[in-house]
User: Fold Taurine ABC transporter ATP-binding subunit from Aquirhabdus parva.
Amino acid sequence: MSTLVIDQISATYPNSTQPVLSDISLSLSAGELLVVLGASGSGKTTLLNLIAGFIESSKGKILLNDRPVKGPGADRGVVFQDDVLLPWQDVQSNVAFGLQLAGVPLQARLAKVQEILKRVSLEGFAKRKVWELSGGQRQRVGLARALASDPQVLLLDEPFGALDAFIREQMQCLLLDVWADTHKPVFLITHDIEEAVFLATDLVILAPSPRGIVERISLDFSKRFIAGESARSIKSDPQFIAVREHVLQRVFEQHVHTLNNQSVSV
Ligand SMILES: Nc1ncnc2c1ncn2[C@@H]1O[C@H](COP(=O)(O)OP(=O)(O)OP(=O)(O)O)[C@@H](O)[C@H]1O
Assistant:
């Protein structure tokens, strides 16, 4: 059972005197889907980059299964908004890329790719070139590539941000199915409040000023989806709408606070 622990993390970029993140503590275990929501500039991507090992914290530590995170590794699968696929390669080669780097033999790679493509509903797409895919299909390939090396945790940075509302909801449902099938803990950042409330078992709202976590909420809408209720039914439930409005209010407060601070300092 994988566990990610973020322990009193602070981060400051080299060219800045102000921390981007200050004293953030979070934990994420199997069966949990942690969503970080927050105004632009609140440090969401910085937090994901720290977990991915792309940047280092100035204080605190990050542990994955009790081992300190030091640099990038195959134990963390990352999916970005811009899919970062190899455009000249086909779907199969993109999904198998990490396995190839890890020296996995060809036949084992192909078998793994078939299994993963089935999981993300892309059976029959193995030989398609990336430029022959829709935006939603590309994000499925991104998710498949992240899953291929069987990571301990999935990290997703605005993965559905560029998709239209219908495809976005399809991808949310697909992610929940993958999450339920694989039992992998998922860390996801988004700007989209409805998406955050639908997906999260744990929702964290980050603020840009003063920096930090303004609220943590435990939710069970994703578990209701896994139990068989439809996304439409959940999202139109008055209980869902009440939570969504509450979260919207908290995020708007952050925007107003930030704007007021900016106008004071002008
Ligand atoms: N490489 C960098 N060097 C210096 N400052 C940076 C760097 N990357 C981000 N920042 C600054 O850190 C702060 C947080 O950025 P970050 O991208 O983590 O926020 P975010 O919440 O993900 O924002 P958005 O929702 O707009 O993507 C911002 O003020 C940003 O300008």
